[in-house]
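step=encode ok
step=design start
structure_in=
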């Protein structure tokens, strides 16, 4: 298993480029299941999660070429096996994104339940509720969800709360349903909007993706399309914090600052200097940041996927920061590891109280999930001395060549085989 060895204390400076968004790429690839015609995706990130969904789609009979490169071609002309086995779903919850398109195109699907994961139970009850509203019959059998539907029928679906992959699954299901589907209290994340753009390029009729009400006028079939994947706002936000936490000066290229407004606002409140361009963000760290409070929220609020990284920054802030995690249960595993670097954090329920300290000190730490791993890399770059982050396979699921990108702008990070 690989480890990252970080020698901290180096201010980052220079230019860094953002890859395509993981959380956009996964639903876009699943959308290939809706059509017999090919889908061409560009700006795909080279990530383990992308390879996992490619593997899953191949298992079903989809032809996938170019995963591991920025250009992926998918063609689901022959769908031989509408099934997602446990072995693949357990390594990546987002595998559940095949459920909606399979139900719509094949009238049946058998998808393993994702089970618990490191950031809480994360059920899929809202995905299933929506499919039932569209007329599907759902059965649970030996850890698998079995969906049967002759042809899905459009319906009005009101989510109790916003779910990103739930919205995406039902949007895709609605595309091939008979009649109109209206999703209310839908997730507004830019990745949902990007999926809407792709579906429309395939010939679907989806209105309002990226807002809380999405209307999908179903049709019997959709075609192929070419699509440019949006930049990864979480990777961009992580780089912004890398500049801030090391007192550095980074220009982040090929990002969409409009997707990062709440992160930018919090960093500015903390005293970090930010200049936004159309597709760039220049971030300059100035001494110790000021402590700020934050609460995670669905888009456009502060993303839960940026909470761990922001906590890393707050460990060295002046003052006390109160961080509330309102989207997921148990998403503070990074706090215990940050303590090993000398941070002062107390947790009560879903709230973390972070008392800033002047310095962190290097130590061995363990990554527990994707974004927690990023927070440990950030803290390690700020810490005095040597930090060894183990279990970096979590990081490789969602950050393309992170140590190479950060090393190019002055970080001292080495990947070693333990
Ligand atoms: C997606 C993102 C993930 C991000 C999360 C929240 C992808 C591939 N992953 O995950 O990176 O952290 O959004 O922004 O896009 N819930 C239920 N029942 C359901 C569905 C969700 O109770 O049927 C709950 C979850 O447990 C959680 C909340 O709803 O508390 C939001 O989860 P959701 O938006 O569904 O997250 P994901 O789509 O899994």
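sequence_out=
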């Amino acid at each position: 298993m690989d480890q990252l060895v970080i020698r901290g204390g180096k201010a980052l400076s220079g230019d860094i480029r953002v890859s395509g968004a993981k959380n956009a790429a996964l639903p876009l690839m699943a959308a290939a299941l809706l059509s017999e015609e090919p889908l061409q995706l560009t700006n795909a990130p080279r990530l383990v999660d992308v390879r996992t969904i490619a593997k899953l789609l191949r298992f079903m009979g989809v032809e996938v070429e170019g995963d591991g490169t920025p250009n992926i071609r998918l063609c689901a002309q022959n769908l031989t096996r509408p099934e997602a086995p446990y072995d693949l779903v357990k390594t990546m919850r987002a595998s559940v994104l095949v459920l909606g398109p399979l139900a719509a195109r094949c009238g049946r699907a058998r998808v393993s339940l994702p089970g618990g994961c490191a950031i809480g139970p994360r059920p899929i009850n809202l995905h299933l509720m929506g499919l039932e509203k569209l007329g599907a019959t759902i059965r649970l059998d030996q850890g698998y969800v079995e969906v049967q539907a002759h042809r899905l029928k459009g319906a009005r679906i009101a989510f109790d709360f916003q779910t990103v992959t739930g919205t995406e699954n039902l949007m895709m299901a609605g595309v091939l349903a008979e009649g109109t589907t209206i999703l209310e209290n839908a997730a507004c994340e830019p990745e949902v909007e990007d999926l809407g753009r792709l579906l429309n390029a395939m010939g679907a009729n989806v209105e309002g993706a990226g807002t809380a009400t999405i209307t999908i006028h179903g049709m019997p079939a959709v075609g192929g399309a070419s699509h440019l994947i949006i930049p990864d706002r979480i990777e961009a936000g992580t780089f912004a914090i890398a500049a801030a936490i090391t007192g550095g000066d980074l220009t982040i290229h090929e990002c969409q600052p409009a997707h990062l407004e709440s992160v930018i606002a919090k960093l500015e409140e903390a005293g970090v200097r930010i200049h936004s361009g159309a597709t760039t963000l220049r971030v300059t760290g100035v001494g110790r940041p000021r402590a700020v409070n934050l609460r995670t929220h669905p888009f456009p609020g502060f993303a839960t996927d940026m909470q761990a990284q922001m906590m890393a920054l707050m460990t060295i802030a002046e003052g006390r920061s109160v961080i509330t995690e309102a989207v997921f249960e148990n998403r503070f595993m990074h706090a215990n590891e940050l303590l090993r670097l000398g941070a002062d954090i107390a947790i009560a329920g879903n709230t973390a109280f972070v008392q800033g300290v002047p310095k962190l000190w290097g130590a061995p730490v363990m990554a527990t999930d994707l974004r927690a791993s990023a927070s440990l890399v950030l803290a390690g770059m700020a810490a005095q001395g040597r930090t060894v982050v183990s279990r970096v396979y979590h990081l490789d699921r969602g950050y393309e060549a992170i140590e190479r990108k950060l090393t190019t702008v002055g970080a001292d990070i080495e990947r070693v085989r333990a």
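step=design ok
step=annotate ok -> Residues 233-245 form the longest helix (13 residues).
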